[in-house]
Amino acid sequence: MAALGLKEGIAKSLQWTHNDECLKPGQLDGMEVENDLSQSALLLTVPQAYLEYTSSDWDPPSRWDDGIPGLIADYSLNAQTRHQEQGGEDSHDISGNGTVGANLGAWRFRADWQSDYQHTRSNDDDDDSSNSTTSKNWDWSRYYAWRALPSLKAKLSLGEDYLNSDIFDGFNYIGSSVSTDDQMLPPNLRGYAPDVSGVAHSSAKVTISQMGRVLYETQVPAGPFRIQDIGDSVSGTLHVRVEEQNGQVQEYDVTTASMPFLTRQGQVRYKVMMGRPEDWNHKTEGGFFSGGEASWGVADGWSLYGGALADKHYQSAAMGVGRDLAQFGALAFDVTHSHVNLDHDSAYGKGKLDGNSFRVSYAKDFDELNSRVTFAGYRFSEKNFMTMSEYLDANQSDMARTGNDKEMYTITYNQNFAAAGVSIYLNYSHRTYWDRPEQTNYNLMFSHYFNMGSIRNMSISVTGYRYEYDDNADKGMYLSMSIPWSDSSTVTYNGSYGSGSDSSQVGYFKRVDDATHYQVNVGTSEQHGSVDGYLSHDGSLAKVDLSANYHEGEYRSAGIALQGGATLTAHGGALHRTQNMGGTRLLIDADGIANVPVESNGAPVYTNMFGKAVVADINNYYRNQAYIDLNNLPEDAEATQSVVQATLTEGAIGYRKFKVISGQKAMAVLRLRDGSYPPFGAEVKNDEQQQVGIVDDEGNVYLAGVNAGEHMMVFWEGSAQCEIVLPKPLPADLFSGLLLPCEQKGTAAPDSSAPEIKPVIQDQTRQVTPTEAPTSISATQ
């Protein structure tokens, strides 16, 4: 009954009979039960009023699956090597981050790590001497655990965490929290995920971190990039580091959007937390704190929200109101007051400080214009207003007071003019401070898709950008053009202007298949020639990115990035690719058959030698589907069940088994001892009770999973009636009508003495009369 998705109160009120195995009929008004014998199905019709909300890809909590116990180890590794032509300096860098953990019931236990190794060797041509330096580090950056609380639509977290708040600025702490989880809501009620954009002048490593902890690391080819697969639970300020192959580094901060904290009428969204702040080195700072926030849908379109955060010397409280303006979007306004009692001399002075911060946020989808203002906001903070992070810094008297926010403007905007083939993307932020110069970051992209004569789907894109960090600004413009060369390849032109260097490149992009693509560029940079190459492959065991660069007279470099993981359970395990460290995954069992292609999201994965595969990056609380690619099954395999579904809780290891039969295929004629045939519709099953064939009215059957010497049972009238034994060895031609005697179980010839049965043409076998039918069929005619 759980599969029906009945409301909890309705399901509990139902009465059962026959040891709780049969439901008493007539208990729900409007519920209808109908048999469909032609489809061997029982049809149930249940009025919608009795059912929990569901949609095409979302299931109610009664269908959520916590998965099975198991161990995981996910990783992201990046390696780069570079040789400077001038000076002969060689440098090698290996960095990585990942997550290890265990699942036990509904609990998820995790530990995050990050590591970096750098070796540089400098050659001095003047005195034939060289110097080398090496640095390395390994950090366990976070220990934590969590579990879902489906009845509360909430998540319980323990251990080290980052305060992801809709009101207050975040910080690292160790403690516990309970918060409503938007992922448990239907898709149309969920929030948004962060969007990080930038421009790489060459193949580059992009690292996104928060408060010293690496959240995401990948390699990108030259050109503009947008990273949109960061978890939607991430909020606050993200630090972006773009490390080019030539050694240049861009760094800037991205403030993730804070959507209006609105709630539907009669519902409450909340977060409560307690613990002690700590730095990224696991050192606690300050005293014990507690806090909470909530949003209440008080009336149609109106929400009240607020919260408080306090320890012995720091208190902060906020209150706000939000309004759903229907076709005009959503608007929210809030004010936060902070009170700090500094009991010692510090960079902030000594004594009590009180200040306020005011914030306005707006969000709107313009569906009729195919555009979206993902977020637009303004915040003003008085000089004495302090966040918890600033208060913690104030306790360290040796730290100077810098970065005291004054004003902040943020906007992210998308618009698509489908008829004109034009799209616009804007990400803009402007911050002013009380004690240092202002900072402006933006990324503006204009794209146009058009046809020219017989050439279709051409595109041209212009990107203007500016990223500022620590009073250093990187700004410029990027021009790109794409011309289709075939169904799977394009010719490109890329030009980069600004930031002290101009470059232009002509490239060729080729998508080999769903899993592999590459790009080759040739061009000039500062009057020097350059050649770049980039290859990406989504393999079953890992995602692999390769890059190589040569810039005349400057440097040559190469890099590799690997993203993958390992999952191990009592049902088996597999190596696999993954992007979401420690995330939800689905273990696939193909009945021990190797090289079975399984598709779900992205390129297919193939089962290993044990018949297992893992589909990673599964969406939490979504109805995910995995299916076998029947067109690419191994020659000796056939799937009798090729589609499975799972709705998994966050971090779960799901387990689903496909019904796959291994062996050759054959046409056979089954004969009983008296020369008759098994009845029409009789089923042939192997030792694992898998159906491998159905008999027609003349004894003909198409068998799958045929193996030499294998025993199979023939079923009719609800039970096994007789047994067949496949010959050993199998004949070369299995489609000429193999004649197989069907004996009572236990009387069929054993493997060692089974007579050789040659293929018999079906028409010849029909000439044998019942009285002539032998007890066993000899090898000769």
Summary?
GO terms for molecular function: fimbrial usher porin activity. By secondary structure, the protein is an all-beta fold.
β-strand percent reads over 45%
Coarse shape = globular
Structural class: mainly beta
Average pLDDT for all residues:
84
User: What is the third-level CATH name, the topology of the domain at 663-772?
Assistant: Immunoglobulin-like
CATH superfamily of the domain at 663-772: PapC, C-terminal domain
Largest sheet: 24 strands, antiparallel, barrel
Low-confidence stretches: 750-781
Rg, Å, rounded: 33 Å
The tally of beta strands, per DSSP, is 51
**Helix tally?**
3
CATH class of the domain at 663-772: Mainly Beta
Assembly type of the chains comes to: single chain
Structure description:
The chain is mainly β and 781 residues long. Helices cover 2% and strands 56% of the residues. The protein has a 24-stranded antiparallel beta barrel. The protein is built from three helices and 51 strands. Among the domains are: 2-52, no CATH class; 570-661, Immunoglobulin-like (Sandwich), CATH 2.60.40.2610; 663-772, Immunoglobulin-like.
